[in-house]
Amino acid sequence: MDPNPSRQIVEPSGGVILRQLFDFDSGLSMEEHLQVYEDAKHRWTHCSLEEWQAGAEGVWMESSFFLLGADLSVTLELMGKFGDVMDYVKDHLHTKMSLYASLHSRVEEHKGTLGNRDKILQDVRERLVRQSGNVLGSGIAS
């Protein structure tokens, strides 16, 4: 034990170091970004399909993600690359959703066709039963 307690080395946590060096409170920053994330999550989970498709254009700009300590050009480059990835994902999802919508409409159309065929088969069955009764009934002496 050191007789002089003021000379003991205290290793601060990461948050304290950031606060001391850059006057930056990581907890406060996380809370702000977490709130932005939660708001965006709530918005996009409860929106309509049309709203989702229309709003996908500038979402990543709205969320205001900025890299700490990064050069502005690097930040803009990363934002551009992220935007390209998001555009690719959006296009891919749009293609898949269009395919699903097309498949869904074709299945519904085919269900209608099958319903019509079922009615025709039911009519034919009833006619066959009536005609078989006529054929069988004509051979029996009354």
From TrEMBL:
The organism's place on the tree of life at top rank: Eukaryota
Protein known as: Uncharacterized protein
Organism, as annotated: Heliocybe sulcata
